[in-house]
Write a structure and sequence with these properties.
Distance between the termini: 21 Å
Structural class: alpha/beta
Order of helices and strands: EHEHHEHEEEHHHEEHHH
Number of domains: 1
Helix content: 25-40%
Number of helices: 10
């Protein structure tokens, strides 16, 4: 990455900001870059309806003129950021959701150095905290029924079962969160390649949703750290977690 800022567009105005933190804690403590965070304060499906009208060539232009994103007047929107990450919830219960829309969104926003790269929380941002222990041997197979997504039911479930102290996430906790979700991304699609195939994950989630009314609990939110700098992320994970795993060969295999 060059020395320009990275742009993070997040759905919410509270939980996402707490997860990101800053340069001293949270996910941003693992990112060696300047950054700008823009809370969209609405669903990805609202962004879809607005952006897909085709009035703007890129997402930064849309945010600049429709949402008040501040950029120097002499900087072109397309040149303003080194990388763009979008972090939004899957939310299949949302009134504007459709399988076709979310696939189109993921196809559109599939490159952080171009239009931007979308990371989806399944079912929503609270999946980030849905670990019952550290390490959590049951996380790979953990699912949630769509019936549990009404109102604040899923948030309450996570709040009452998580082993994490949301207001006191250590860097070791952070590494566990990243590693568990990285490994589960591979588990869902049966693929241990270095690159995370977000479209295949989405297709598996849609298939599970339509056939069983369930979703795999998965937060791809923390995985932008791995995409941003894979080697550095893996080095930190190994350093922080090596004493807690008798065998971390899975991490080492994908790092090669």
């Amino acid at each position: 990455m060059n020395n320009k800022e990275i742009l993070l567009i997040v759905e919410g105005e509270k939980t996402e900001l707490n997860i990101l933190g800053d340069a001293s804690y949270g996910l941003l403590s693992l990112i060696d870059s300047n950054y700008k965070i823009v809370p969209f304060a609405s669903s990805i499906y609202e962004l879809y309806d607005d952006y897909k009208q085709g009035k703007y060539d890129d997402l930064v232009s849309y945010l600049r003129y429709e949402k008040g994103l501040k950029i120097d007047d002499n900087v072109l929107s397309k040149n303003a950021f080194a990388a763009i990450y979008l972090i939004f919830d899957f939310e299949p219960q949302y009134q504007k959701y459709s399988d076709e829309k979310i696939k189109d969104l993921l196809n559109t926003f599939n490159n952080e150095t171009e239009l931007g790269k979308l990371y989806i929380n399944y079912p929503m941002v609270e999946a980030y905290y849905h670990l019952l222990s550290l390490p959590d041997s049951g996380f790979n197979t953990r699912k949630i029924s769509l019936e549990s997504l009404n109102g604040k039911s899923y948030k309450k479930l996570v709040n009452t079962t998580t082993c994490l102290k949301k207001n006191n996430i250590s860097q070791k906790d952070l590494c566990y969160i990243i590693l568990h979700n990285f490994e589960k991304s591979k588990f869902i699609i049966g693929d241990n390649n270095k690159e995370i195939n977000h479209m295949r994950i989405l297709e598996e989630q849609i298939k599970l949703k339509n056939s069983c009314n369930e979703l795999y609990v998965l937060s791809t939110f923390p995985l932008f750290v791995i995409d941003y700098n894979f080697d550095k992320a893996m080095e930190i994970l190994k350093e922080k977690l090596k004493k807690d795993f008798e065998d971390i060969s899975n991490v080492e295999t994908v790092a090669i």
